């Protein structure tokens, strides 16, 4: 009888340990480097129904952000909405999309998928060509 009781206690202890081990969450993966979001919620932006969105994440203290905004602004049209998301004015969006480097420029389709992105001020030819290529692929 003592052996049976000991076996039951050991089995219960093993089950408790197994349950505790399964509940323990693994550590979150460590983010290395600078990231660009894979998707943006178009409802977060001023013109969510535009076929294309060029979102430029900036900061007032950023010396090169104005150049990124200037390059992107030239794309504004009925098919392309360009929006500047300045950190102090839209901190929640910077945090939501984990923008940790500015300027970050995202070219976003109607579903919110980031189809092209640029860290730092994009060259005009590169940004304009990316948008033109994506628009052409969609037609």
Report what the structure shows.
The protein has a domain at 42-138: Glutaredoxin (3-Layer(aba) Sandwich), CATH 3.40.30. The radius of gyration is 24 Å and the shape is elongated. It is built from four helices and four strands; from the N terminus they run H-E-H-E-H-E-E-H. Strands 2-1-3-4 form a four-stranded mixed beta sheet. The longest helix is centred in the N-terminal third of the chain and has 22 residues, at 2-23. It has helices at residues 2-23, 65-73, 91-96, 124-138, and strands spanning 52-58, 80-86, 104-108, 114-119. Helix 2 links the parallel strand 1 and strand 2 (80-86). The model has no long low-confidence stretch (mean pLDDT 88). With 139 residues, it is an alpha+beta fold.
Please describe the topology of this protein.
Blueprint: H1 2-23, E1 52-58, H2 65-73, E2 80-86, H3 91-96, E3 104-108, E4 114-119, H4 124-138
Parallel strand pairs: 1-2
Antiparallel strand pairs: 1-3, 3-4
In brief:
This protein has 139 residues and is α+β, with helices and mostly antiparallel strands. The chain has 4 helices and 4 strands; from the N terminus they run αβαβαββα. The protein starts with a helix and ends with a helix.
The fraction of residues assigned to DSSP E strands is: 15-25%
Q: What is the overall silhouette?
A: elongated
Low-confidence sequence ranges: none
Indicate the mean pLDDT.
88
Order of strands, main sheet, comes to 2-1-3-4
Overall radius of gyration: 24 Å
Order of helices and strands: HEHEHEEH
Number of β-strand runs: 4
Can you tell me the CATH topology of the domain at 42-138?
Glutaredoxin
The first-to-last residue Cα distance is: 79 Å
Secondary structure category: alpha+beta
Counted by DSSP, the helix tally is: 4
């Amino acid at each position: 009888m003592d052996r049976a009781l000991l076996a039951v206690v050991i089995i219960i202890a093993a089950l408790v340990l197994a349950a505790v081990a399964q509940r323990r969450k693994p550590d979150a993966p460590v983010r290395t480097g600078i990231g660009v979001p894979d998707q943006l919620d178009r409802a977060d932006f001023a013109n969510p129904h535009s076929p294309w969105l060029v979102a430029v994440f900036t900061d007032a203290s950023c010396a090169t952000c104005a150049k990124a905004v200037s390059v992107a602004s030239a794309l504004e049209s009925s098919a392309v909405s360009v929006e500047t998301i300045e950190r102090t004015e839209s901190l929640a969006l910077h945090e939501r999309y984990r923008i940790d480097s500015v300027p970050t420029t995202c070219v976003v389709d109607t579903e919110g998928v980031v189809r092209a992105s640029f860290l730092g001020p994009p060259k005009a030819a590169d940004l304009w060509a990316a948008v033109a290529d994506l628009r052409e692929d969609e037609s």
